[in-house]
């Protein structure tokens, strides 16, 4: 399932799209639900910011086919160590988004593998969802693993937990600003579109029909119940994209976890914070 609203609050939905949504809803609720569903699985692409240029320039990059979803991702290999860490970006992110974390791990004699998910960064396509993030993770493990650790941000955090549930082998994991309950995320997305609850429920039914599973099957707290490796859950209490309650709820359902709550870092600044990176590194390497 896509969890595209993880970035929506800081990227306000343009007024023309919200107007279109309301017009469609007044005309046909089914059409409106299909429109919302298409928006929900369509990420936004952004130029690589200067802070990520080093990793972009120095990493070895290649396109990798993911047979399970018949799509292609862009992989980034950073560092030369045989001890590998998988990094997973969030919705509308890219493989270089966790550069500060990658730099620290490389200095500690690890290498990192990250990727642009389908429809993200340099990867082809226009749409994606969490099942494709998970498929990409498992394919990378198959081709380049094993990974010693995994670190995921936002939707990437949810994907890491679900990938572990589906067989990804790592010694430890870190999730940062992870979303949690998919139904809540979808409801929030519908609210931001200005649509009513009925349209949201219809959109959820369309997703369930497409995937053949209940809407909350991929919720982070459910995946967490199947995860036994140590997990560090990091979240900022001022995150306006994903509420900090998500971290507490996920932490509650993990068998072996630590919780780090920060202040004033929001949803993205947290990825470059020195204290966060130090704690993350100590957790993984201890």
From TrEMBL:
Keyword Metal-binding: no
Molecular functions (GO terms): hydrolase activity
Keywords: Hydrolase
AB hydrolase-1 domain residues: 85-186
Coiled coil (UniProt feature): none
PANTHER family: AB HYDROLASE-1 DOMAIN-CONTAINING PROTEIN (PTHR43433:SF5), HYDROLASE, ALPHA/BETA FOLD FAMILY PROTEIN (PTHR43433)
Name of protein: Alpha/beta hydrolase
Origin species: Flavobacterium beibuense F44-8
């Amino acid at each position: 399932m896509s969890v595209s609203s993880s970035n929506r609050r800081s990227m306000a939905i343009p007024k023309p799209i919200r107007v279109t949504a309301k017009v469609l809803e007044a005309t046909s609720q089914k059409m409106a639900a299909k429109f919302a569903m298409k928006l929900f699985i369509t990420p936004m692409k952004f130029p690589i910011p200067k802070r990520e240029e080093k990793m972009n320039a120095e990493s070895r990059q290649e396109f990798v086919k993911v047979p399970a979803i018949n799509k292609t991702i862009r992989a980034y290999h950073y560092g030369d160590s045989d001890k590998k860490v998988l990094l997973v970006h969030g919705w509308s992110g890219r493989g270089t988004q966790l550069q500060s974390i990658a730099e620290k791990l490389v200095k500690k004699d690890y290498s990192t593998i990250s990727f642009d998910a389908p429809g993200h960064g340099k990867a082809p396509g226009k749409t994606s969802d969490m099942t494709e993030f998970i498929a990409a993770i498992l394919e990378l493990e198959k081709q380049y693993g094993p990974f010693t650790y995994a670190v995921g941000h936002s939707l990437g955090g949810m994907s890491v937990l679900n990938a572990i549930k589906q067989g990804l082998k790592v010694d430890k994991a870190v999730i940062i600003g992870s979303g949690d309950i998919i139904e809540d995320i979808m409801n929030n997305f519908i609210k931001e579109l200005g649509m009513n609850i009925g349209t949201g429920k219809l959109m959820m039914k369309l997703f369930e029909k497409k995937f053949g599973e209940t809407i909350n099957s991929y919720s982070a707290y459910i995946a967490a119940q199947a995860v036994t490796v140590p997990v560090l859950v990091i979240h900022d209490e001022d995150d306006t994209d994903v509420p900090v309650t998500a971290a507490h709820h996920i932490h509650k359902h993990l068998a072996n976890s630590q919780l780090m709550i920060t202040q004033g870092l929001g949803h993205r600044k947290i990825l470059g914070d020195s204290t966060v990176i130090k704690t993350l590194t100590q957790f993984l390497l201890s």
